[in-house]
Amino acid sequence: MVKKTLLLACGWVCVALGLLGALLPLLPTTPFLLLASACFMRGSPRLNAWLMAHPTFGPVLHNWHTHRAVSRSVKRKANIMIVLSFSLSVYLVPLWWHKALLLGMLTILLVWFNRLPARENVQSEGATGPAR
């Protein structure tokens, strides 16, 4: 019971952060929604089904759960936001070695993220959720 409650709480916090990320430019949306979906899968299949059926977030989640892929538009937006947020961080930190570490992390993140397969969302699949 405690584990289920913690999973549900974590899932709702991630949904809230994902929704904030849809509005705020430097906060990512997709990773929080993926984490929320993972928590809901284990804590409440009904809430996971609701999240998977969401008209905006469902297709992205379905694409990841089914194909371990992201759409080209999600990749493009994420690349822009990653570069902008790291650029701001590099600009703001005063020490040169912090800047170097941030640039190294930026490089690793971009290489990893851009190696993920790209697959366009299929709209009709978004409402049904992944077959498990």
UniProtKB/TrEMBL annotation:
Coiled coil: none annotated. Keywords: Cell inner membrane, Cell membrane, Membrane, Transmembrane, Transmembrane helix. The keyword Methyltransferase does not apply. It is a multi-pass membrane protein. Its main location: membrane. InterPro entries: DUF454. GO terms for cellular component: plasma membrane. It is found in: Cell inner membrane. The chain crosses the membrane at residues 95-113. This is Inner membrane protein. It comes from Photobacterium aphoticum.
